Amino acid sequence: MATKVAFTSIKTVFPGDTFEYVQGARFGDGIIKRNGVPTVSRAGILKYQQQTKYYHVFSDLKKYHPSVEDVCVGKIVKRVKDKYLVDIGSYCYAELDFLAFENATKKSKPNLLDGDYVYCRVVSKENVPQVVCVSQRKMEDGFGELQGGWAFSVPQSMCRRIMGDGCCVLTCIGEYTPFEIAVGINGMVWVRTPNVLNDVIVESCIVQCLGVVEKNVPGTIKLVWESWKPVLN
């Protein structure tokens, strides 16, 4: 199962706002530097990831805007020389080097095809986004090719929600079926269960939980699963 990246909500911010930050911090989407001072460039919620000392401003945008250290579910669209072009839902395709995988060498590297999915990490957003399938800790952490399964899109806000602490959506789904999941901040989700039908039901559960408060999530997922009983039987 992919590693969850927990973000803490700090406060609502607006363009021009400044804020206190920890030493050695890094800044992502929605934050620019003016005279060396990190400054908010769009309205949203200021978020902080403690492990990586990473700040960004969350706004529920339809088009994904990459930030360094974002984790994404991407779709391979083409091979070009020594790299893959990956659709991460951004303004252009991201580039993934053939060797940007755990333990990859020139003689031993993944052979991905158009349409395959990968779980990747953004390492640069300048001009053309660059992604890798290696974690910051030099461990797999679920990064790499996502074999089989089912991929679908949801609002970026839902992805951030189920990746954060305190969300019970995935725990509740696990009461009905075993599954593997990779959730991208870019609004893409990949899931694999014992069969394709359960893949589709898991997607339905996540979609139906949009806007549902946590205390009502177990009941919502139960209703979804029960609605599929005639097909399951």
Automatic annotation (TrEMBL):
GO biological-process terms attached to the record: CUT catabolic process; exonucleolytic trimming to generate mature 3'-end of 5.8S rRNA from tricistronic rRNA transcript (SSU-rRNA, 5.8S rRNA, LSU-rRNA); nuclear polyadenylation-dependent rRNA catabolic process; poly(A)-dependent snoRNA 3'-end processing; TRAMP-dependent tRNA surveillance pathway; U4 snRNA 3'-end processing
Keywords, comma-separated and alphabetical: Exosome, RNA-binding
Transmembrane segments: none
Stored Pfam families: KH_6, RRP40_S1
Gene Ontology molecular function, alphabetical: RNA binding
Every K Homology domain range: 149-196
Subcellular location: Nucleus
GO cellular component term, pick one: cytoplasmic exosome (RNase complex)
Chief location of this protein within or outside the cell: nucleus
Protein name: K Homology domain-containing protein
